[in-house]
Amino acid sequence: MIAELGTCSRQELRQLAGANGATCISIYLPTHRFGQEVLEDRIRFKNLVAEAERRADRLGRGADVRGLLAPLRDLEMQPDFWMHQSEGLAALASPTQGVVVRRLPAAVEELATVADHFCIRPLLGAMADDLRFMVLALSQKSARLFECDSSGAREVDISGGPTSLAEAVGTDWEEKSLQFHTRTSPAGPGQRRAAMFHGHGRSAGDSKDELGQFVTRLDHHIRGVLVDRGVPLMLAGVENIAAAYRNASSFPEIMREGIEGNPDLLDARQIHELAMKAIAPRVEEAHRRRLEAIRQALGAGLVTTSVREILEALEHGRVGTLVVRRAEPLWGRTGKGGVGVEVHPTRREESEDLLDEAARRALLTGAEVLAAEPELMPEGAPLAAALRF
After folding, report:
1. Residue that is last in its domain, among 84, 106, 127
2. How many domains, in total, are found in the chain?
């Protein structure tokens, strides 16, 4: 079982989109970080697992899913799991893919489906571009380097360079500001003189010079580690240390975004979560620019919002960019080759989510897939597509 927090890369979504031919269970749930709602999340998840089993029974697949649902039922009984949630939860299970449980940074609607493929549309809201960058977590006592992408962070070995201020300027750097003496007379008859420490006048300039030595030596080493990676660097640290490194570094691409505060107690998962939050405005702005380009192309007649036309074009690999409404499925049925598409006003037993079907086809044919809030969809349509030809 995989349980992790974070966004989904396009590669991961493409892999899930290609899982078909077996019984696939997809369960989605909006979750909460604290409060009474956490207990309610467990109850609602239990109900969704039961709903998935009922749907499987009605489809004659009950025997196929009971073993797959067992690990999900186990999650219901794990209070610690529910105390560490984010905004949404995805639980996917199939005989070929196993069980995948992912905590999502964006809320999703409650949903339970059983089909011959996964429902991936709710994951589009958690999909990130295939980002790659490094994070240098820096304090006076520690320096750690992490390689990050859309799915997570992995620590990189930087041994061989200075990883603390003490290592860079000498182990006595803390002791330089203290000196020892005794009182001129004992505190009382028969008592030993009490020891006292006081500063010896070490100036703020000395501390600044030592920090400068540390970050300069560290930067030289880090540049050697990063030289062939071709990715930007994000800094994580308190303001003065991050600023000192930024000023001393000759690395050409240090991101303006960063993680503020002492990072010493943060693990890789927390580093990744905070880094993705830091660059979220940059990612969202790029997303808005792409949506605006789609809207402008719609006015020029280069984009279609016809669900039937889009599904047929996807079948033949003619879609370059697909925009999918994030909220609410569009129930219906697809015919062979995208022909004979039916749109159902409400969900039926045989209904499938046409938005999910479009997203899966787009990912498998190499089209760019964007998810947008309903109010940002071109012409308010559930789907929009820029055609290649």
Report:
1. 127
2. 3
For 146-189, the pLDDT digits (tens) are: 999 877 899 999 988 888 888 877 654 444 444 433 344 444 44
Q: Which residues contact 324 (CB under 8 A, 6 or more apart)?
A: 121, 124, 355, 358, 359, 369, 370, 371, 372, 382, 383
**Nearest Cα to 137, choosing from 245, 26, 8, 57?**
245
Same domain, 54 and 158: no
Number of H helices, E strands in the chain: 10, 19
* φ and ψ of 317, to 5 deg: 70, 30
How much of the chain is in helix, strand and coil states, percent to nearest 5? 40, 25, 35
Q: List pLDDT tens digits, range 341-372.
A: 899 999 888 888 999 999 999 999 999 898 88
| Domain extent for 310 | 302-389
Query: Same domain for 144 and 240?
Result: yes
**How far, in Å, CA of 296 to CA of 292, rounded?**
6
Query: What DSSP character marks residue 154?
Result: E
